[in-house]
């Protein structure tokens, strides 16, 4: 749900303090747990280490990210894969193609 326009975007005050200490395009990574913080134009060029619950994911802020939240660029779950018989057959076909390529490359090199 969008934040009220009269309230304005949520920007964590600790992040603003840290931005003022460093210069853009510096090699330093600013660690943060504030995933709900909105990306502002002042943040462009900085690298944030956004916590995903287990580790800090480095996020380089670009111009097209302005208006989004920091948490959008640090996924909290790892996609396993969709299961089922159909998926298994597709994976077997892929594996067969790979083995055929390897055999062909070995034969051509000999």
TrEMBL record:
Keyword Ribosomal protein included in the entry's annotation: yes
UniProt keyword annotation of Cytoplasm present: no
A GO MF term: structural constituent of ribosome
Keywords, ordered alphabetically: Ribonucleoprotein, Ribosomal protein, RNA-binding, rRNA-binding
Stored Pfam families: Ribosomal_S19 (PF00203)
GO cellular component, one term: small ribosomal subunit
Any GO BP: translation
Compositionally skewed regions (Basic and acidic residues) per UniProt: 88-110
Domain of life: Bacteria
Region called Disordered, residue ranges: 73-110
Coiled-coil ranges (or none): none
Alphabetical list of InterPro entries matching this protein: Ribosomal_uS19, Ribosomal_uS19_bac-type, Ribosomal_uS19_CS, Ribosomal_uS19_SF
Family: Belongs to the universal ribosomal protein uS19 family.
Alphabetized NCBIfam families for the sequence: rpsS_bact
Role summary: Protein S19 forms a complex with S13 that binds strongly to the 16S ribosomal RNA.
Protein name: Small ribosomal subunit protein uS19
Species name: Candidatus Nealsonbacteria bacterium RBG_13_36_15
Lineage: Bacteria, Candidatus Nealsoniibacteriota
């Amino acid at each position: 749900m969008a934040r009220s326009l009269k309230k304005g975007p949520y920007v964590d005050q600790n992040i603003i303090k840290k931005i003022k200490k460093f210069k853009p395009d510096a090699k330093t990574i600013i660690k943060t747990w504030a995933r709900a913080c909105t990306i502002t134009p002042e943040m462009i060029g900085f690298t944030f280490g956004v916590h995903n619950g287990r580790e800090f994911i480095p996020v380089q802020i670009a111009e097209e990210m302005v208006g989004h939240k920091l948490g959008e660029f640090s996924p909290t779950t790892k996609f396993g894969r969709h299961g089922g018989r159909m998926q298994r057959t597709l994976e077997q076909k892929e594996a067969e193609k790979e083995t055929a390529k390897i055999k062909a490359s070995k034969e051509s090199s000999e």
